[in-house]
Amino acid sequence: VTTRPFEVVDLAEWPLPMDDEPAIPQTGQYDRDHTLAWSRKIAAAPAFVFVTPQYNGGYPAALKNAIDHLYQEWAGKPAAIVTYGGHGGGRCGDQLDAVCRFVKLKPVATRAALTLPHEVITGNSGDIDPAQIFAAQRAAVQDALVELDHALMGPEPQAS
Ligand SMILES: Cc1cc2nc3c(=O)[nH]c(=O)nc-3n(C[C@H](O)[C@H](O)[C@H](O)COP(=O)(O)O)c2cc1C
User: Quick check: 81 and 100 in contact, CB under 8 A?
Assistant: First the structure.
């Protein structure tokens, strides 16, 4: 779909304390070393693919907190949203889309919603074969990545 390089940024490796900056992030005045590091990480990325589970009809607090720690670093960049859960996580996708737009990210049109079988959720081992278990959503993931790729290329040149 794309040959662009990518990096997996796992929030489990970015344990940002909840809402701990004294100033509002819109000012870009960060006080904490972890926020400065997080700012550098996000500022360096031209686009994002958010992959998130749905928790009780929303997306996890850790993801909101990670978004809320920054502001300008997100602005103007394209993003794709991939959700997963027992029912695909559509509600959490809606919420994340709205918050992305608030921080001026530009979500692509296609959203992939990956459905996990009940036994996978209750087993909770993380041991899955994505090619098999997410086969039905493969096309949506590919479409979203192609749209992200196009967004990174900018507008089509106008015919003269
Ligand atoms: C607190 C909690 C709430 C959940 N709520 C939903 C839900 O509203 N809809 C859904 O489809 N799945 C829901 N699930 C199932 C998760 O999406 C599923 O277990 C997923 O694999 C969790 O991902 P994680 O292991 O990366 O946290 C919930 C799971 C947890 C732990």
Answer: yes
* Average pLDDT score over residue span 115-129: 89
Q: Is the CB of 52 under 6 A from ligand 1?
A: no
Closest alpha carbon to 113 in 73, 141, 133, 153: 141
Of all protein residues, the one whose alpha carbon is nearest to atom 31 of ligand 1 is 55
The confidence score (pLDDT) of residue 127 equals 86
Q: What is the pLDDT of residues 14-32, one digit of tens each?
A: 999 999 999 999 999 999 9
Closest-CA residue to 3 (of 152, 120, 125):
152
93 Cβ inside 6 Å of ligand 1: no
Instruction: Output the residue whose Cα is nearest ligand 1's atom 22.
Output: 53
In terms of pTM, does the model score above 0.85? Answer: yes
